[in-house]
Every structure is written in C-alpha cells, then in structure tokens.
Amino acid sequence: MCHTVYPWHCDHRGELSAGQPLMWIDTTACLAAERHAGVSCVTASVDDIQIEQTARVGQHVCIKAKVNRPFNTSMEVGIKVEIEDPSKEGQKHVCTAFSTYVTKPVGSTKVYLKPVRLQSSQDHLEYSLAAERRRIRLYHQDAYNNLMEDGSVLYDIEWEKDNNKVLSDSTRVESIELVLPPHANHQGNTFGGQIMAWMENVANISASRLCRTHATLKSVDMFKFRGPSTVGDRLLFRAIVNNTFQKSVEVGVRVEAFNCEEWTLAKGRHINSAFLIYQAMNSKGEYIPFPRIKASTKDSIRRFQGAIARRKIRVARKYMFLPKLEKPISHPWQKSNQAYLSYNNIAKLTVLAANDGWELSSTLPNIRIFTFEDRDILSIKVEMQVRVQPKQAYYLLSDLGLRPNWDMHYLSCEVLETAGEDDKIFHITCPPVKQS
Questions:
Q1: pLDDT of residue 346
Q2: What's the pTM value of the predicted model, to 2 decimals?
Q3: Membrane-spanning residues where (predicted)?
Q4: Domain positions in the chain
C-alpha cells in the first residue's frame, strides 16, 4: 500500500501525524492476513513498533505486509514501512511492526490456517522468529507479574525528595468518540486502525501536558484488542502518564465501549489497552528530559511500578533480537596492545560510572540496580550496602579470584593468563539468569 502525505495527514509542523500510519499499517496487515486466510480476520494485537523516521508533506509512504507464520486460527503479520522523497533516490526505513490476527469463525466452525510457503532465507528466518515472538507475547503477562511480585520494582521513597516531580493525575486525559459508519471496516466492526489513531491522540496530549511541548511517538509497547465495538458505540478513551525515564515517557491508554443502554447505566466494556512511548525535542533538535512523576495514590504507584516492569521487558526483548553488529564492540587482546586495552578499559569504565544518565531500575534491601542505555549498548550498575571493615573490603575487592566467596552471581573465577603485574585474563562462570 502506498500513500502520498498531504497537509490534512500532518500536524502543525508538517510532519505526518502518528495516528495516520497506524491506520494504514492496520489496513495493509489486515489485507495480507485475509488474503492468506481466505476469510475475515480481526486484529488481536499490534506490538514491537519502533519509529525511526517521520514523513513530511509531499513524501510517499510505502507499506509492505506479509504473513510470517500461521498458528492454527491466528497468525503473525510482519509490516515494514518506508518513505521516499520524489526529489531523491532510495527509501528510508520508518518502522517495523508485528500484528497478530485471528480468523473469524464461519458460523460455529473455526477456520484453521494453511501453512505459508517459504521461498527465501529471509522467509525461513522470519518464520522461526515468529515462533519466538509468539512465545514472548504469551509469556509477557507472566513475566510482568513475576517482576511485580519479586519486589524488584519497588517505589523508592527517595524519589519523593525531588521537588521537580509532577503529579501523574495532572496528565490525565479523557475523550469520547462516537463510532460512525466511516469508522467501521468491511466487517461492520470499528476499524482497528481508527481506534489506534484515537488512542495515540489522547496519549500524545497526555505526554505533551507533562513536558509542556509537543511530544513525538517513538515506539509502541503493545496495542491489545480485548473485544469488538460497532457503529453507534460511544468509545471512552482514558490516558495518563505512568512513568518517565530520563528522556522518554510511558503513557497508558484504556478504551471502554458503550452502546446506548450501557451508556445510560455507565457500564462499559473494556475493549482496548495500549502503552506508548514518547520523546520531546527542543528547538535545537535535542531530546529533552521529562520531569519526574509523583505517584500519590495506590493506583498510581501500581502504574508507576508497572511501567518499570514493562521497560525491563522491552529492553530484554530489544537486546534478544538485536541484529549482529558489523563491527565488534570489543577489541581482541594481544601482547602488543595490552597496555592500550588496560588504559582504555579503565578510562571507559570511569567515564561510564560518572555519567549522569544512569536510571534507577530496581531496588532490593540494601541493593540498587541502575541501567544506562547508549545507542545499542546497555550497561548495568549495581550498588550494594554492606557492613564490613575497610581493610577486609579492600582485600576482597582487590582480588577478582575471591569474588565467588561473596558474589552469588559468580560460580567460579579462574586466571587463564597473566598479562602483566597488574593485568590478568580471567575465565568467569555464572549461574543461569533468573527468568522474570
């Protein structure tokens, strides 16, 4: 599917509004799903959207979608969005997304999907990865619950001392939309892409209230479709900022549908949920930090902690499927460069430790864990408070071989080669990482 970006598709800056490509993405993906299934399909979820470029007036948006893998009555559809400028050669990648569609039963009979025909090595790769992504989707709620229950996303009372914090309730946005015939798809249900566009609109307003400038959608954690709505329904959208992470913010959106009777009784149906990530730029094109959020109620603390848990899952997912870099991020050790490597390691670690961008990721009794993300490199810093004599602490820390005696994450630490008086090469074994 290809579209030309016109002024009515754009915001005040002449950039394509984020809701518009979400509508085009859902339409294209639905066409691909129904072509494979041969029957009507409905959107179950849309996730893993990372937006890298923004289209402008006059540019062309090209969207490609194909079924990566069917699973009985559901399937994963991969979507690739690119933009091209008529005055320039080539295309620029905008985003990649993955949608899950479910076949609609014919009467009372379920429609089971036929397998896809794999023709290229890329098809085989996407087919395999689709199974992994499905496993992650199915495990997502369990992983989220585990993180919330193990106490690693506690609300740190130290944050309350920040005088620049903003009450999360001040970012609350509510909006009502009446579903009209133009908003319905060819099946008579509210078009999924339209709902996503409305959700993005209220989420954008919520994020903008916090940063006092225009926020830009950077990624979508997940759009989850819980139930249908039809023409005549009133849709109530609620958006609120859950948490901020230095230069990004997570906004949660909830959608409830009401028919006329439900509207009178104020008993809605929860049909959609989403978590969207925004950033904001200053006049120089630099990303600006967001104010901290103060969680003042039990519900806001739950959302605050939930945002941290979801961010951990996003980071883990991102680095799990990160493509191999063209160049190594480390240099092989050799006798000829050991002095340079030693200096470089110490210098880089010192600068890294002193960086102001460390974010508190989780807290445990006497332990605080921080993360720092720079491009595609994730660094982790752990601070632990212990009661021990300075002499004993120096003795334990000065010899890496003693670390298994006090660090539960080290099973063994053996010297492979002595590179110099103060430099050694160690072989370290660690236990399996706890899955949560």
A1: 67
A2: 0.72
A3: none
A4: 1-127, 151-323, 341-429
Which CATH number fits the domain 1-127, given the four candidates 3.30.420.40, 3.40.630.30, 3.10.129.10, 3.30.70.60?
Answer: 3.10.129.10
Task: Quote the CA–CA distance of 21 and 426 in Å, as a whole number.
Answer: 51
CA pair distance 187, 350, nearest whole angstrom: 60
- As a three-state string, the secondary structure of 284-311 is CCCECCCCCEECCCHHHHHHHHHHHHHH
| Cα 220 from chain centre | 6
Domain 1-127 and domain 341-429 have a common topology: no
Per-residue tokens: 42: 């409905």
pLDDT of residue 336: 46
Pull the structure tokens for residue 296.
């003042």
Is the separation of the CB atoms in 255 and 177 below 8 Å? no
SS3 205: helix
Please identify, in words, the CATH class of the domain defined by 151-323. Answer: alpha beta
Which residues of the chain carry a pLDDT beneath 50? 320, 324-327, 336, 340, 436
Class of 341-429 per CATH? alpha beta
* CA gap 369, 362 in Å, rounded: 5
Q: What is the pLDDT of residue 241?
A: 93
- Contacts (Cβ under 8 Å, ≥6 apart) of 165: 159, 291, 292, 293, 294
